[in-house]
Specification:
By secondary structure, this protein is α+β, with helices and mostly antiparallel strands. About 30% of the residues lie in helices and about 30% in strands. A five-stranded antiparallel beta sheet has the order 1-2-3-4-5. The radius of gyration is 15 Å and the shape is globular.
Length: about 160
């Protein structure tokens, strides 16, 4: 029970990292049952300020990387024009290469970028890939992009 509580706190902290202007995160549930307790899958969160106004959407997304699954937390503003942040929860990428996706220099590139620029700079976007770790860098972008697209279709 304590482990579940610690994981929940860590995940909420990640949501605050990627959506610092939010005070609360209201889960949006899907139809899929994820455990024997009958809990439904959380698709994403409605990020609201202290007055209860929607400021954006926050989410977690798992994506295949170079070595294994990368799980990211991300945020997008309420009109789907700007990424508010990105943070990596877990990965098994190569130390010194793909593992650098957790470093501030890579993560901070996502803060406040226009959604239209959510691409590697080599593809005309604003995100510089990690040298020698293009697959890991692209996996993070793919996770962010696919989840934002999914939320936009649902909320649109």
């Amino acid at each position: 029970e304590q482990l579940k509580e610690n994981i929940a706190k860590a995940r909420e902290q990640k949501l605050l990292e990627v959506m610092p202007q939010a005070a609360t995160f209201d889960p949006v549930y899907g139809d899929t049952i994820i455990n024997e307790d009958g809990d439904k899958e959380i698709l994403y969160y409605l990020a609201k300020d202290g007055s209860g106004n929607l400021v954006g959407y926050a989410f977690f997304k798992r994506q295949p990387g170079s070595q294994n699954i990368i799980e990211v937390a991300g945020g997008v503003n309420s009109d789907f024009t700007q990424i508010t942040g990105m943070s990596v929860l877990s990965h098994s990428e190569t130390p010194g290469l793909g593992a650098r996706i957790i470093e501030p220099a890579f993560r901070q590139q996502f803060n406040g970028i226009p959604l239209s620029q959510l691409k590697l700079s080599s593809s005309g976007g604003s995100i510089d890939s990690i040298t020698g770790a293009t697959i890991s860098s692209q996996a993070v972008i793919d996770a962010m992009s696919s989840k934002v697209d999914s939320i936009k279709r649902t909320e649109g």
